[in-house]
Write a structure and sequence with these properties.
heterodimer, A: 449 residues, alpha+beta, 5-stranded antiparallel β-sheet, B: 244 residues, alpha/beta, 8 helices, 22% strand, elongated, disordered N terminus
């Protein structure tokens, strides 16, 4: 048996409602049948006792007719119907069914043509002297009682069914709402807003307590992140300042006439410290982007327009590096974003392509629309990155062996990745020509506004 | 002690121009303050240093400075907080914030609270020098409107996207025009690479490629007229200057 279907709240609700409906309908039918049977049983017992009374001491036909006449004369007609026949000749009666009824007990309805009778039981006895005694008792003393009974039963069981279905749906809705609140908060936090909390409804309800526990956990996480960020800022300050000092001292030495023979070494030392500082800059920028604060300044902008302008404004650098830039197509793509960060993202991707490909490479930049997304594509026809190396390329300091001799600090793509996530998008690496060695294709997929 | 020596007309970058300029450095890192003092004094500035932010408030009351270099993180008081107090007390001296934090929100906060510029540590002394001069130039009354700029034989009309050199029309791409406009506007002064990246490209990060060099090269090729000198001067290790 596969129970995995019951992991979904909806499946559980539907299964429960279907089974409950079947059970309720069966119960209703059973109650109806039982009720009819009970009435028939009681009527049958009365028929039997009536016949026993009439046939006491085995009367002849004339005596029996007399007894029937006295019975019908005694009481109002309608309660019990009597018919005594002898070979088609009626000896005594207060009813006249329009057809012959079978010997023994049977159910009769309005179709036998007895006025006022909607449903009843008939007892037909054939006697040895050739007479036939028919007794009919109504099992429906009130007209269309059966219809009313059906309505009463349906209303009763129907109400139960409706109440339970509404209850199950309400419970499902409450659970679903609660889960949605948790999920919404989790997603907001995933997107970088650590201040998001689950709304607490009813402090003493189990949902409320769950939300509070969840929120306490989030408070703790936020505190930890806050102190982590504080530490990283302190590190930045404490390491960058002495580095700046070191660099300043090198500069002072470089300016001295005695340092003339050491110019090359000093310049190299300064370049080394510049690389270190650039790395700090990138780490701090990643931290800043991952903090998600920039989202507060998001504005509507056209990604195509921005990418076009940005690519055109660095076109000379690409050309001078011996590579060719192919621009467009530009399909208008309105998105919400931080202009400065998106400019840096585009510049980083183009620089990445310039830094990791040989001269003669063609680098293309374009913006398209696919479904409800804007797609920024920066592709080259250089060596590309193999599937196995893609995860490494996106990891901090995850420089590929092949790229160690290229400039950069190994934080370019991780920074782009952080920026894309800040914009609620997705970064993907692929082979530009669909096969290994056909170049790198970086696609940035952002939701359209 | 007024900043008249920073008038934009002076022909070349002469070291004696900074002779009369008084700089106050508010920095708690004594070693960095000493290096700054040495380097700025070498360039002819008169330099005072203070480590205590509270002393800075009273120090300003006694002496007039042309520019204040203010550390963003000071013991007991945030540099931005101190800056707000300066401005609150009507002290309009130009302020350049020095900081180890290059984060955009902090940059914006610093500029919003009245700083004239924002320099991220570490920086080249040439960079700081150029920025001090730029801040003083910006404070000096500017010439007419900015839609048409000219220096030497070059005229740039930003509004009409038109450039001429010695009367000859020169076709420039958008980025090239913006770069030329910035150089011409500041003709005679050195603009550093980071300053150009900020003003022309709007970057607040350091690119890993030589974008500025590539566009300067383009600009030189476009402005070339046989028999006439290259109007753009490279100041080695610092930046570029338009020769007026």
């Amino acid at each position: 048996l596969n129970f995995s279907v019951f992991r979904s709240l909806r499946a559980i609700s539907i299964a429960f409602i279907v089974m409950l409906s079947i059970a309720t309908v069966c119960t209703g039918v059973a109650v109806y049948i039982g009720l009819v049977k009970a009435i028939d049983g009681a009527v049958d017992r009365r028929l039997q006792s009536e016949r026993w009374e009439l046939l006491q001491r085995d009367p002849d036909a004339r005596e029996l007719a007399r007894r029937i006449k006295s019975e019908t004369g005694l009481r109002d007609s309608g309660d019990i119907g009597y018919l005594l026949e002898h070979r088609g000749q009626i000896l005594a009666q207060n009813i006249r069914p329009n057809r012959r009824l079978p010997v023994g007990i049977s159910t009769v309805g309005s179709n036998i043509g007895v006025p006022g009778l909607t449903r009843g039981r008939a007892l037909v006895t054939e006697r040895p002297d050739g007479t036939t005694l028919t007794l009919i008792i109504e099992s429906e003393p009130i007209d269309s009682h059966d219809a009313h009974r059906t309505i009463i039963l349906s209303a009763g069981f129907g109400t139960i069914l409706v109440l339970v279905v509404v209850g199950v749906l309400a419970l499902g809705l409450a659970v679903r709402h609660n889960i949605a609140a948790l999920r919404g908060t989790a997603e907001t936090i995933f997107e970088g807003d650590l201040s998001a909390r689950v709304p607490v409804v009813g402090q003493n309800s189990s949902f409320g307590r769950q939300a509070e526990a969840f929120n306490r956990m989030l408070d703790r996480i936020e505190d930890l992140m806050e102190s982590l960020r504080g530490v990283s800022n302190d590190i930045a300050h404490d390491l960058r300042t002495p580095l700046a000092r070191l660099r300043g001292k090198l500069g002072v030495i470089l300016d001295k006439p005695e340092a003339a023979p050491l110019q090359a070494e000093l310049a190299e030392a300064m370049a080394e410290s510049d690389d270190l500082l650039a790395m700090f800059g990138a780490i701090l920028r990643i931290a800043e982007v991952e903090g998600g604060e920039a989202r507060a300044q998001f504005e509507p902008l056209d990604l195509a327009e921005l990418a076009k302008e940005t690519a055109q404004s660095i076109d000379a650098m690409v050309t001078d590096s011996g590579r060719t830039m192919r621009l467009g197509p530009w399909h208008a793509a309105p998105v919400q974003g931080d202009r400065r960060l998106l400019v840096q993202l585009i510049v980083n991707l183009v620089e990445n392509a310039v830094n990791h490909t040989p001269a003669g490479t063609t680098i293309s930049v374009s913006v398209e629309r696919r479904d409800r997304n804007a797609l920024l594509i920066v592709a080259d026809d250089g060596p590309g990155i193999s599937e196995a190396d893609r995860a490494l390329a996106l990891r901090r300091f995850g420089r590929l062996d092949a790229s160690r001799h290229f400039p950069g600090h190994g934080l370019g793509l991780p920074l782009v990745d952080a920026m894309v996530r800040l914009h609620r998008g997705q970064l993907a690496l692929a082979h530009a020509g669909g096969h290994a060695g056909s170049g790198l294709l970086v696609s940035v997929c952002l939701p359209l506004e | 002690m007024s900043p008249q020596s920073a008038a934009p007309q002076s022909a070349t970058e002469a070291p004696d121009r900074s002779k009369d300029l008084a700089v106050l450095i508010v920095e708690d890192d004594a070693a960095l303050a000493t290096i700054l003092r040495t380097q700025l004094s070498d360039r002819g500035y008169r330099v005072d240093t203070l480590a205590d932010p509270r002393a800075a408030l009273s120090g300003l009351a006694k002496t007039r400075y042309d520019v204040i270099l203010l550390d963003r993180m000071l013991p007991g008081m945030d540099g931005v907080e101190l800056l707000r107090r300066f401005r609150g007390e009507g002290i309009e001296t130009p302020v350049i914030l020095l900081t180890a934090l290059g984060r955009t929100p902090e940059r914006v906060e610093g500029l919003d609270s009245g700083a004239d510029d924002y320099v991220v540590k570490p920086f080249e002394i040439d960079e700081l020098d150029a920025r001090i001069r730029a801040v003083l130039r910006r404070r000096a009354p500017s010439e007419s409107d900015n839609s048409t700029l000219s220096a030497g034989d070059v005229v740039v009309s930003i509004l009409h996207h038109r450039v001429t050199r010695a009367g000859v029309a020169i076709d420039l791409q958008k980025t090239e025009l913006r770069l030329l406009a910035e150089l011409v506007r500041e003709a005679g002064n050195v603009l550093t690479r980071p300053m150009l990246l900020e003003r022309v490209w709007g970057y607040d990060f350091t690119p890993t490629t030589n974008i500025v060099e590539a566009y300067i090269l383009r600009l030189r090729q476009r402005l070339q007229i046989p028999g006439m000198p290259d109007p753009i001067v490279t100041v080695r290790g610092v930046g570029y200057m338009f020769r007026p």
